[in-house]
Amino acid sequence: MLDVKAGDEQSFALLLQRYRSPLVNFIYRMVRNREQAEDLAQEVFLRVYRARADYVPSAKFTTWLFRIATNLALNSVRDNRHQRMELSLDAPMNADSEDGDERPLDVADKHPDIEQHLVEEARRKMIRHAIDKLPEKQRAAVLLHKYQELDYNEIAKILECSESALKSLLFRAYEALRVELAPLVAQGVK
Amino acid sequence: MSCERMENRILPYVDGRLKVSEQREVEKHLAGCAACRVRVSEFRAVSGLLEELPQIEPSGAFDARVRARVAAEPVKQSWWAWLAPSPRVAFAASMLLLATIWIGSRPTDRAPAGPPIDEAQIVNDMPVLENYDVLSNFEPLTDLPQPVKADDGNDASDPNQQM
């Protein structure tokens, strides 16, 4: 980032290459809309570019980057909350595969074991649904913890809370997931 | 360690992110607490389930869109850049300054607007001038000696010269 600050365009391209996938995935799992996730991830990079001159390396770059991403995603989730509620009430059962990360099941699918595929599909849907049901901050904490593998300290800085509060937040989130995913959890524990 | 204190340690324990000393403490508690052991294995199962979600790939146009948005950004000027005005602004400012100086330096010989002033009337209205007339004719003051002129060296009435 310091090279980007110094005006090195090539370094900005490297940042883009390094972080585009983690950012898009994180935001996608927050907002559950692929197009919106890409727009927001682009906005994150734009903000990084705009702020390059004033960048002070007081914290890790990833902490700063994901703080921007988290704030944008949380704002977007809050803005779309009512709209999403209406959509989920009217949506068909496989509505959460609408954004293209999962293809809708095709009868003519050449999958070798269609029953197995259906089972996997149902599991993923349930997991996604359980994550979606978490309060926004808990969801962000789980996603940053599980998929970005950031330190507790970093996640706490991103979510602007203490490390102890973060651990408590994550505990509540995992408790909610444990309850929501009880049938799958029971299979896993056996 | 109590079950309550375990709350903030179960997940770090499942992640393997506890210090060795903390890990020993947790394991000691787990050895005697069936409820926390169940919770640990359930949290492990939840963590495993979360790994089942596939990753998505950003679209092929993602980088190009970011670059286009970056390219559309206005060029940010530093504060010092404000001190270097454009030639047009500098020319206009110079002209304005010259015009101000020229107008300021013009003689103000124009008569003030309004009715003509009756000077005799002003004199009559000034009591100080009236007092001057009285004082100039005041007899005791006429008896005072006249002031000696410094450049009056050839005066015939000089007593030293008579000697």
Would you write up a description of this structure?
- The complex is a heterodimer of chains A (190) and B (163).
- With 190 residues, chain A is an all-alpha fold.
- Chain A has one domain (2-189): Winged helix-like DNA-binding domain superfamily/Winged helix DNA-binding domain (Arc Repressor Mutant, subunit A), CATH 1.10.10.
- Helix content of chain A is 73%, strand content 0%.
- In chain A, helix 2 packs antiparallel against helix 3 (34-50).
- The radius of gyration of chain A is 19 Å and the shape is globular.
- The longest helix of chain B has 19 residues, at 87-105.
- With 163 residues, chain B is an all-alpha fold.
- Chain B is built from nine helices and no strands.
- Chain B has a domain at 3-50.
- Residues 155-163 of chain B have low confidence and may be disordered.
- In chain B, helix 1 crosses helix 2 and helix 2 (20-32) packs across helix 3.
- Chain A binds chain B through residues 12-13, 16-17, 20-21, 24-25, 28-29, 34, 38, 41-42, 45-46, 49-50, 53, 99-102, 120, 123-124, 127-128, 131, 142, 145-147, 151-152, 164, 167-168, 170-171, 174, 177-178, 181, 184-185, 187-189, and chain B through 7-12, 17, 38-39, 41-59, 62-63, 65-66, 69-70, 73, 76.
How would you summarize this macromolecular structure in one to three sentences?
The complex is a heterodimer of chains A (190) and B (163). Chain A is mostly helical and 190 residues long.
Topology, please?
The complex is a heterodimer of chains A (190) and B (163).
Chain A: H1 2-5, H2 9-31, H3 34-50, H4 61-90, H5 114-133, H6 136-146, H7 152-158, H8 163-180, H9 182-189
Chain B: H1 3-15, H2 20-32, H3 34-50, H4 62-71, H5 87-105, H6 119-125, H7 127-136, H8 139-142, H9 159-162
How many extended strands of chain A?
Answer: 0
Beta-strand residue fraction of chain A: under 5%
Rg of chain B, alpha carbons: 52 Å
Give the ordered list of helices and strands of chain A.
HHHHHHHHH
Give the CA-based shape of chain A: globular
Would you count the extended β strands of chain B for me? 0
Helix content estimate of chain B:
55-70%
**What structural class do helix, strand and pairing data of chain A support?**
mainly alpha
**What would you say the CATH architecture of chain A is?**
Orthogonal Bundle
**CATH fold name of chain A:** Arc Repressor Mutant, subunit A
Largest sheet of chain A: none
Helix proportion of chain A:
over 70%
The biggest beta sheet of chain B, please? none
CATH class of chain A: Mainly Alpha
- Amino-to-carboxy terminus distance of chain A: 47 Å
